[in-house]
Amino acid sequence: AMAEKAGFKHFMLKEIYEQPQAILNTFRGRLDPETGQVKIPEIILSPEEIKSLNKICILACGTSYHAGLVGKYLFERLVRLPVEVELGSEFRYRDFLIDENTLVIPISQSGETADTLASLRRAREAGARAVAICNVLGSTITRESDGTIYTHAGPEIGVASTKAFTSQLTALLLLVLYFGEIRGTLSEKERKRIAKALLKVPYQLEKLIEKLHPDIKELSYQYQKKRHFLYLGRNILFPIALEGALKLKEISYIHAEGYAAGEMKHGPIALIDEEMPVVALAPQNHHVYEKMISNIEEVRSRKGNIFSLGTEGDGTLKRVSQHVLELPACDWEVSPIIYTVPLQLLAYEVAVRRGCDVDQPRNLAKSVTVE
Ligand code: G6P
């Protein structure tokens, strides 16, 4: 079993470490490093069909749903198309509004999740086209879609999704670059900037894991006994706060909530005390950075314990936090990928300290094929 795990103690850790390669595999052969142009003929849609779209509807469950939420921020900013993101279990029983000009994007690691599949079927009955983002070749969701962007992350064994998620984020970004060119919403300069940012990600992640894993492991000793965690993010990192919280609860059984930082005042601020760690995602170059800092100040003035993730060399963030994980400066479009990985490592290390069965958490299944 150790051999299958390539010397890692758990599949989850192996898969966290595989992310630079998985992301490379997702964009390789699709993204031209010189021009930033993307080729994904497997999505089938013609340029005319892409131009005539009036809405995107993303369907997913669990971690894949969080990738979908990131997709909304990307598509609405860079492609200027309205995006709905819906949980499979909700969409399938809802009176949704969909027509032939709606593109449905089911996102699923396994391609077999029952609720996502049922939603896809209903959407197609209503006339929508479907392009899946999926990791498993020939799975049901890919067979029932018009086209599929395979993530090529390799088999994911750990129940808690890691490399499949960051590969989904990569696939979404490729789709955005592709649609942005065809629909004329992305200038060549912008496209090249984003492509350059994405091309750098595998290398940045490799360095980041190497540098931060020992620190995160060290910190996990202080955090393993905590009973509640709050994760805060804004804008494109709000879904990453949700994902960080989900990872922790899935494998460590610690109660964790992800929140849009601006919503804190409408509830979770009542819970702040010396006990509950608040994980704050605060990259310096995001337009909501100042807003994140004021949210952190609000937590601090209530004696909260701030564990923040931000940009290397950010002195302000250091001053207001108990602990800071310093991440490389990166563009907005790739920041969800960069900020996810340390949160995976944090969940992993805390769960290991608590003696949890990281690869097979209780009551959870890798793929939920029944309702
Ligand atoms: C299960 C898994 C999660 C996964 C979710 C959706 O709950 O434990 O890790 O995110 O299903 O799975 P899918 O294969 O559709 O991405």
Explain how this protein is built.
It is a single chain. The longest helix is centred in the middle third of the chain and has 36 residues, at 188-223. Helix 2 (19-27) runs antiparallel to helix 9 (188-223). The protein has 13 helices and ten strands. The strands form two sheets. A five-stranded parallel beta sheet has the order 2-1-3-4-5, sandwiched between helices. A five-stranded parallel beta sheet has the order 7-6-8-9-10, sandwiched between helices. It has helices spanning 11-17, 19-27, 47-51, 62-78, 88-91, 114-125, 140-143, 163-182, 188-223, 238-252, 289-300, 315-320, 335-353, and strands spanning 55-60, 83-87, 102-108, 129-134, 147-150, 228-233, 255-260, 277-282, 305-311, 323-327. With 371 residues, the chain is of the alpha/beta class. The protein is globular, with a radius of gyration of 20 Å. The model has no long low-confidence stretch (mean pLDDT 96). Bound molecules: 6-O-phosphono-alpha-D-glucopyranose (G6P). 6-O-phosphono-alpha-D-glucopyranose (G6P) binds at residues 61-64, 108-110, 113, 116, 159-161, 364, 366-368. Catalyzes the first step in hexosamine metabolism, converting fructose-6P into glucosamine-6P using glutamine as a nitrogen source. This is Glutamine--fructose-6-phosphate aminotransferase [isomerizing]. Homodimer. It catalyses: D-fructose 6-phosphate + L-glutamine = D-glucosamine 6-phosphate + L-glutamate. It comes from Thermodesulfatator indicus (strain DSM 15286 / JCM 11887 / CIR29812).
